[in-house]
From TrEMBL:
HAMAP family linked: PurF (MF_01931)
Gene Ontology biological process terms, A to Z: 'de novo' IMP biosynthetic process; purine nucleobase biosynthetic process
Lineage per the UniProt record: Archaea, Methanobacteriati, Methanobacteriota, Stenosarchaea group, Methanomicrobia
UniProt cross-references to CDD domains, sorted A to Z: GPATase_N, PRTases_typeI
Pfam families (alphabetical): GATase_7, Pribosyltran
UniProt name for this protein: Amidophosphoribosyltransferase
Position of the signal peptide: none
Transmembrane segments: none
Keywords: 4Fe-4S, Glutamine amidotransferase, Glycosyltransferase, Iron, Iron-sulfur, Magnesium, Metal-binding, Purine biosynthesis, Transferase
Species of origin: Methanocalculus taiwanensis
PROSITE patterns assigned to the protein according to its UniProt record, in alphabetical order: GATASE_TYPE_2
Length: 470
């Protein structure tokens, strides 16, 4: 997962890009970058680290221009190396080209081989560079960015929400199944695209709509136009965005993520009620779930754990030992709330089980009498090939393990995962329009040696181009 943004507006976009990326920091903490274009020059700055470590006022002031794109990175394909930071920037026959990408291609290796055959040299190990290579080649041949993007979409397999800058114009497109989010907003004097609506909120921009799966948009100073490139029988939006990844205050597909999570919490209570003294979230991801559970059960919501907000996600710790210590640094139990109490802890997911086990141990150390664990997703039993950093089957605690076994591994008094049906009901969206690969082991695109339920995608002939008036 990554966070991406593109803005065309008057009066300089570097600060707005920075604020928008700040709202998307949860989508990636490994690196950050911004490119802007002004009077024939591409200005760029990117580095590893959090946004606040990468940028300061002086740097942002040196990024002039009324068009720009930005990225926060969470690596899936391509190691955490300086050259893999985005935007990727190129010059091409007198044009400047910059690209940011959220997603994961599943045919990256084939495409790299194909383009190496054409003599292309790759400077990074990210799949995003392949997208740039395809667009660059087709743009050189046809001279049309629209045609280059259509051809690129014919070649790419996997998930991709992409924002590019070609001189003073932004082009953005979303894969035919809409696996990763991307939405459009109206700023004071222009337009923007961003991974989540919270980035629009940060700028006071007005939400227009999500980019449709298989849609391309073009934004320049004369306005915004859109073109539908593909149509498919079903989409495959990443269900994990609703479970874990997106911010609760984001609206995706017309649905407030907070409401989905609160409903999941209600359903967790209906499916597995427990007579307890307090309902406590594992912060922050469990908060809206715990609110729902508490409302439905009538048991008081009380924070049994307080998070130190200045520590990054424990998941990025490379070793088991570091991960275990990091939990203690990050979450401190509130003894006065849990001592002698029966506590329901609510979290969004269990992946390796490391954090959950450590949290339950901590809560017991601080005096809880019973710890019941409630989880806002069904067991994660399969890896993700489409952009969420999940480990292999072997490392997933629920792979080949019954819930009772997982319950003893994490040393809870009871454990319940929300059912798949209840989770889908909470979203109000058809199950066939989600990618549920990590929960079902069945993927919406072809992946070698995995089960797939591929969606049927058609490219629209004689595509139309319409202005998006607002
Ligand atoms: P664990 O008990 O080690 O499996 O960790 C569970 C915690 O990891 C939950 O609190 C989740 O919010 C969080 N989590 C789930 N998926 C991811 C992910 N892809 N990246 C980082 N953290 C995650």
């Amino acid at each position: 997962m990554c966070g991406i943004v593109g803005i065309v507006d008057t009066g300089g976009v570097s600060f707005p890009l920075y604020y928008a990326l700040y709202a998307l920091q949860h989508r990636g903490q490994e690196s950050a970058g911004i490119s802007t274009f002004d009077a024939g020059t591409l200005y760029k700055h990117k580095a590893q680290g959090l946004l606040s470590e990468v940028f300061d006022r002086d740097i942002l002031e040196q990024l002039p221009g009324s068009v720009g794109i930005g990225h926060v990175r969470y690596p899936t394909t391509g190691e955490n190396r300086p050259e893999n930071t985005q935007p990727l920037n190129f010059s091409l026959k007198g044009h400047h080209f910059s690209i940011v990408h959220n997603g994961n291609l599943v045919n990256n290796n084939e495409l790299v081989s194909e383009y190496e055959e054409h003599g292309h040299i790759f400077a990074t190990t990210t799949d995003s560079e392949v997208i740039a290579a395809i667009i660059a080649r087709e743009l050189t041949l046809s001279g049309s960015m629209e045609d280059a993007i259509v051809l690129c979409m014919r070649k790419l397999e996997g998930s991709y929400s992409v924002v590019t800058l070609l001189d003073d114009t932004i082009f953005a497109f979303r894969d035919p199944l809409g696996i990763k989010p991307l939405c459009i907003g109206k700023t004071d004097h222009g337009y923007m695209v961003a991974s989540e609506s919270v980035a629009l909120d940060a700028l006071g921009a007005i939400f227009i709509r999500d980019l449709r799966p298989g849609e391309m948009i073009k934004i320049d100073k004369s306005g915004i136009s859109c073109r539908q490139i593909t149509k498919s029988d079903h989409t495959a939006f990443c269900l994990f965005e609703y479970i874990y990844f997106a911010r609760s205050d984001s609206v995706i597909d017309g649905v407030l993520v907070y409401d989905v999570r609160r409903k999941i919490g209600e359903m967790l209570h209906q499916e597995a009620p427990v007579g307890a003294d307090i309902i406590s979230p594992v912060p922050d991801s469990g908060t809206s779930l715990a609110v729902g559970y508490s409302e439905a059960s009538g048991i008081p919501f009380k924070e049994g754990l307080i998070k130190n907000r200045y520590i990054g996600r424990t998941f990025i710790m490379p070793t088991q030992k570091l991960r275990e210590n990091a939990v203690r640094m990050k979450l401190n139990p509130v003894r006065g709330h849990i001592k002698g109490k029966s506590v329901v802890l609510v979290d969004d997911s269990i992946v390796r089980g490391t954090t959950s086990r450590r949290i339950i141990e901590l809560v017991r150390e601080f005096g809880a009498r019973e710890v019941h664990f409630r989880v806002g997703s069904p067991p994660v039993t399969a890896p993700c090939y489409l952009g969420v950093d999940l480990p292999t089957r072997k490392e997933l605690i629920a792979h080949n393990r019954a819930t009772d076994d997982v319950c003893s591994c994490i040393s809870a008094d009871s454990l319940h995962h929300v059912s798949f049906e209840a989770l889908i009901e909470a979203t109000g969206i058809d199950a066939a329009d989600f990618c549920t690969g990590c929960l079902t082991g069945c993927y919406p695109v072809k992946i070698p040696n995995e089960c797939s339920a591929c969606r049927h995608v058609d490219f629209i002939h004689g595509s139309y181009q319409t202005r998006l008036d607002f």
